[in-house]
Amino acid sequence: MRRSVAIAALSAGVAVGIARRLMDRAAGRTPAGEEPERWLAVTVDRPPQEVSDRLPGLLGGLRGPLEVRIDGILGGRGTELAIRPGGPAGAEGRAGRDSRAELWRALRDAKARLEADRPPRPDPPSADSVSGDAAERTARRDEGT
Predict the structure, then answer these.
(1) What Rg, from alpha-carbon coordinates, does the chain have?
(2) Per-residue pLDDT for the chain (145 aa), expressed as one digit of tens each?
(3) Distance of CA 128 to the CA centre of its chain
(4) Closest CA to 42 of 73, 79, 86, 68
């Protein structure tokens, strides 16, 4: 009996901890020890020089200062392109910045345009979506297939 009570208490404590962490992340707070402005990175199948030449036009629509890192991958197998918000991390520094989701979207768009010279295709609709068939037909029509 004591063991089942201890397990139940432990489970409840873990559940509360997970719920707090999820709520903190949703509110934009990070736990102590985590870097609040982590790098977002993609691998691009293009040489570093081509990426650096075309990048200003691809990320030009983003607000606020950005840190950009362009590193060649060992063996000439492409380029790692990474971005994160730059400047001060205080409240004044966050004003006018893009959200991490917008930065991620811009990074994926830049990768697609560098590799295929077109924006990325949207994720396919879920199976229970009523408009899924219409969206798929439209996407195929736009591609010419």
Answers:
(1) 21
(2) 777 776 777 677 777 777 777 777 666 655 554 455 789 999 999 999 999 998 888 887 787 788 889 999 988 889 999 998 876 554 444 445 567 888 888 899 899 999 987 766 776 766 655 555 666 667 667 666 5
(3) 26
(4) 79
Which pair of tokens denotes residue 4? 């089942």
* DSSP collapsed to 3 states, the chain: CHHHHHHHHHHHHHHHHHHHHHHHHHCCCCCCCCCCCCCEEEEECCCHHHHHHHHHHHHCCCCCCEEEEEEECCCCCCEEEEEEECCCCCHHHHCCCCCHHHHHHHHHHHHHHHHHCCCCCCCCCCCCCCCHHHHHHHHHHHHCC
pTM over 0.70: no
Q: Hey, what's the torsion of the CAs at 24, 28, 32, 35, to 10 degrees?
A: 140
